Amino acid sequence: MRVRVSSKGATRLLAHHPWVYRSDVLEGPDQPGLYPVVSSRGVMGLALYNPNSEISVRVFSFKDAGRPQEVLLENLRQALRRRKEAIAQEPQGAFRLVHAEGDLVPALILDYYAGHGVMQVGSAALEPLTPELVQVIRAEIPLQSLLAKNEQKTRSLEGLPLEVKPLLGPVPDTVMVREGSIVYRVDLMGGQKTGAFIDQRDNRIRLQAYRGETALDVFSYHGSFALHLARNFKQVTAVDSSAAALQRAGENAQANGLSNITFREANAFEFLREEERRKAQYDLIVLDPPAFAKGRRDIERAYAAYKEINLRAMKLLPSGGLLATASCSHHLSEPLFYQMLAEAASDAHRTVRVVEKRGQGWDHPVLLNVPETQYLKFALLEIL
Ligand code: SAH
Fold first, then answer.
1. Residues 193-204: pLDDT tens digits?
2. Does pTM top 0.85 for this prediction?
3. C-alpha atoms less than 13 angstroms from C-alpha of 244 in its C-beta half-sphere
4. Nearest CA to ligand 1 atom 5
5. How far does the centroid of ligand 1 lie from the alpha carbon of residue 337, in Å?
6. Domain 197-383 has CATH 3.30.70.2190
């Protein structure tokens, strides 16, 4: 059985972009599964296929050789092997073991938290292979537990149930992980996403290079950036709208013996407006908002929201102050992100130097031909 795609679909695949939309599928099996993809040019590759999904074809190999299941499991094995050295060096750390398309294992996210795994399956074609996936994972990575945290809304589009279940147990509620010179507790069951935002790990560690009087961490989640900053800044303020996240942020501060973080449960937009009104100043500000643009249609509104928080933050920084600012929305491209920052700087009447352009950690690999895999922008800016 094969999936036949139109010449438009084939053009995408020829450019090594792995997705073909339902409207570009000419014919295919009724059941989701792993199949070769063909066009009038011949065999294009091997793919996860779900006739009921908007993105029906997700290619994991652009070669026409091999049995689909074996090729996919080999891709998984290779992804895990690329992380082995890092885990051996920091077994108590947190790493992304599989980054879906970026690792040529579409629809699979697997994160490692100090010996405990959390995975998310986002395709009806992949779901039935879960036992085989677990077998490969166990053989490559020493794991005490593995949790399937299949709660992403996109699963409903695939016709999959939303559920959380242990695949290897027993799964603890929380796990303590190490990140540079700090530790933090991850809520595996109740936390956002798989429990933590590992993609910012190296950026958080990077900020330990700075010191000063006051720092502000906006969209702090469980204290992440604030914990690192509290080592070198006298007073740190951490802001988030989630009381549950801030509760854990407080516990994380304690676990590190830090008593110089003030936690504020607030809407970041209102908080920044209020800080501007009372003419507050900080030596360093972190902005790490959730994805404001969930789809292409949201771009304009999202752009304005990103600009608003960056503009306000720039006004709260004195000359010599630092702004570490991020966007995790792949719909806001890197050029647009920097354009937005330039407009914010201009509206704030500030000259701003780009100290460093950064992105997601190495364990969230990017495919050059798949812009969607390069989602995190992180700019380190100095106000002149
Ligand atoms: N900086 C964190 C990750 C932030 S994720 C880290 O490195 O781990 C985005 C965070 O923003 C979430 O914790 C979410 O609760 C919070 N959030 C979402 N909308 C918000 C808003 N309008 N105001 C304040 N916080 C918000």
1. 999 999 999 999
2. yes
3. 7
4. 290
5. 18
6. no
